[in-house]
Batch of 2 targets.
Target 1
Amino acid sequence: MNALQKDLIRLTEAAERQTLPDSPWRLGLHLMPPVGWLNDPNGLCFFRGEYHVFYQYSPFHAEGGVKFWGHYKSRDMISWEQCPVMLYSDETFDVHGAYSGSALCEEDGMYLFYTGNVKHGGDYDHILNGRENNTALACSPDGVQLAWKRLLMKNTDYPGEMTLHVRDPKVWKQDGKYYMVLGARTRQDAGAVLLFASEDKTRWEHINTLRTPEAFGYMWECPDLFEIDGQWFLAVSPQGVTGKGPGLENVYASGYFPLSGDFRNECALGEFVPFDFGFDFYAPQSFSDGTRRIQIGWMGMPDAEYSNPTAAQGWQHCLTVPREVTMQNGRLLLNPVRELETLREESWEYSYSGKRTIDLPVLSDILIACEDGELSLNLSGVSLKTSGKLLILTVQEDGYGRQTRTAPVERLKNLRILADTSALEIYVNGGEQVLSVRWYPEGGRRTLTLTGKGSAVVCRLRALRIEKYALS
Ligand code: FRU
């Protein structure tokens, strides 16, 4: 262990010993940082019977700072253990941040591929000069303690057509070979994904570049390439596509392209489909636990014009709940993993025709069946209403700058709303669309007003259990 790592561990432990002020916005259903700032989920995997969630973590500052890999693990995605930070930025190749990446589980341990970020001080643009985006590999034999890490690739190992922005390795094994996708920005300011292959996880060869015929944004962050029922999908978080319609209303977007052909050779990307139509969703990653594909996203948005008042309380942001990814008619459906249903404690049924007001528990799972395709609802300052073929989400109160977003919905049949203290995940028509939003109502009461015709079931939920990992 080097001196920098020793000090970073000491400083992180001291930061985590602080008691954050009591707040009605501390989350009950969503993973949040112990202290400080959280962004992208990283290294999601199912390793020796446990789910591991790493995340971009800045424990010293609620507005962000140097990034480490924070860590939670769980047997059931309901009770979580807060584990020690797995990756600190303590080597020359990752000194300004252990940036995003992924996990590969092997017989002999967990391998973590990530980006070592280096940003040189001086008069640089940090796009074509003054920056290093290194690809690094770390190994943890038990999934909790780090054994070693090393540099795999530098910017000079990537195709010359790329700027210095090449990051966020996602790695998987297929037919005895390892594959890696990296998000990139070309010198022509187009988003692209670099595909590398390796026989041994350490020596990598560039074998393809995936892109659209016309530039779709200038940078693609956090790529993910996966297959469901024989269909391949390339997921990316593109920057520079704002204002092009529903799902592209945020400063940065996140979604997927269905891929036809062989990703290793000739292939084409279909039409981009946004993953989420709300305000707070970015940089998702998916993994398989052997039976299904699960996605977790960052329930936040970099460089957004809206804010989160919890920053003044010493923490900011959370992850979405784990979402199960399935395919229907070539499109992805996203729904909370079924384990979350075990959080349901009590439920009440209502029918409504006209207007009905319901008092809600703060943590609730709300299932609404809509009879005539039209609905207007208000949940303590957040409203949703159908308007032709659109569903309109408006944060009327306590949105800290959040206003309106829209989702295309042919005909509204049902909604499921997972309501947390300061986060809502709204699943439309069995997961055809999702809208994620943070909002900050004061006080401990929630009221739901429904207008239209249909029925609703409200389930009170108990909170996730999070305990601190006991170091032996
Ligand atoms: C996406 C991202 C990644 C990067 C990480 C740094 O939100 O910008 O591209 O690796 O965050 O925290």
Target 2
Amino acid sequence: MIGTGYVGLVSGVCFADLGNDVVCVDKDISKIKLLEKGKVPIYEPGLSELVIKNYKNKRLTFSSNLKKSIKESDIIFICVGTPTKKGGSSADLTQIYNVAKEISISINKFKIIVTKSTVPVATGDEIEKILLKKNSKKKFSVVSNPEFLREGEALRDFIYPDRIVVGSNDKRSNRILKSLYNPLISKGASYIHTTRRSAELIKYASNSFLATKITFINEIANLCEKTGVNIEDISIGIGLDKRIGSRFLRAGPAYGGSCFPKDTKAIVSTADKFKTNLSVIKSVIKSNENRSNLLLNRVYEILNKKIKKKIITFLGVTFKANTDDMRDSSSMKMIPALSKKGAIIKYFDPTGSKKEFEKIKNVSYENSIKKSIMGADLVIIHTEWNDFKSINFKNLNKGKKFIIYDMRNIYTPSKIKIQGFKYFSIGR
Ligand code: UGA
């Protein structure tokens, strides 16, 4: 596994747990040293235990020696980052191509080279070209095997995937990959084999579709707020239609994370290259980018446009629960904007304080829910951590009554109102 980020580390550990010998490679030596001590650099429930177990039984090793690791491996997974290009919207494939060059000079026997990183359609063709410069066609096969795991649910998603997608243009690599995944297939996972380009595009189409679903329900929630309708009824009412499906219909703040914002932009940019207008995805991107402003305006309204010196508490700042990831979290737009308007922001997150807010005026981290809401005028439930699902606001805060803005619809409005709190939520 080349790259020990979310995808590389989780997949590597899970493949080891399924009985394979796995080496996870990263050029960051300090990261490798930490992993060898059983210290996992990312927050992911259950991951550290599985790393320790498989490292101890020697099925999982770590290395920063890429050449040696490539030589010893039969299947090489490329799991490096494909971030948005600086100042642009397409995927930056520098790391992918650098790894391909490294692989090309270390091939000593037949290798299957699998891209697990999310890469634009036809990237596999480019990797193949790089490898062909130093190797004959018989020495390797380039395969696309996109990963669909979610942060915070990564182990479960890997072990019980809805589907496994393998895109290869030859039968041999498909056969080998299918046998690698056999333990998951025999437990019920669907396995589909496609061309390499199809597999690459399936990943972007999946993420874009999910982003569209969320954006759709968020916009319907806006309409619910104006018409006195409860968005939860709508999500249930439309979700029970099997053609629509009930998942990913939770209205909330703008979607964030390391994937949806990046991948929606990248697919539009790829489509532009192929002279295709993805107008639906373009609107999704725009609507999501506007969403934080829309919710901020709601905050201003809730506080009667008097923001200066108001104490605003954020419960949770990560882009979703069960992760410490701040990438493209909507809190990163909302907190600085409120601070600029003169608010005093306190926040609590189960994964601790965030460097992203260190330099922002009047923003402080509190190490408990209780401390964070002390003296608050407005409490914003920003992330749906379990820790926030049964707070007894009345007991916790004996003093002044604050307003609650529940951006994840965790609470039942009538129950909170009975306790004497002014309560606002999304789309109801
Ligand atoms: C997403 C996909 O769900 C994974 O299948 C994919 O493998 C991954 O991207 C990736 O490409 O690596 P992830 O970014 O970890 O996974 O998180 P999600 O659970 O999909 O949530 C993304 C955002 O959508 C979050 O901000 C979340 O709060 C929001 N969301 C999700 C909603 O607002 N409503 C929902 O109903 C679901």
